Amino acid sequence: MKRHAIVMMVLVTIAICFAKTIDYDRLERQWEAGDHEDELLSDDELEYKRRGTLDKSEMVFVSLNEAVLRKRKPTDPAISVVSELCATWKQMLLQGGLTVNFYELEAYKVLAGMQHGSRVKELRDFFLEQDEVIEVTWDQNTLKKKRKRKDEL
């Protein structure tokens, strides 16, 4: 039994002495040869790369309907109707997972800024659904809100 263990130790020692060391870096380069760069990236790396091109800050200009806003009464006289509307929108968008900052430019024009603009199309669509909005300008394109037909009212 003792002799059997010694023989095994000797065989393992001989195998280790004559074994070749594997150059893992060279082996990996051989495996990667001929593959496209996107095939070599993990799913997380691909997502990061995709977002890197889309995740820039974006600005959307929103023109408000003066007639609709004049009908609204502010809850706090010290705060304008536009400021209250922007605060309401900010909360609604935050609930939807969009972080948006609002800046009043003129009496009925607002700037909506997003730090992570990959979802700016969702923001644009949100504004076009609001009754208080006349038009939305993003990326030098102005979209006017579609008027509802009388039969839709």
TrEMBL record:
Source species: Aphanomyces euteiches
Stated name of the protein: Uncharacterized protein
Residues making up the signal peptide according to the UniProt record: 1-19
Domain of life of the organism encoding this protein: Eukaryota
Keyword entries, A-Z: Signal
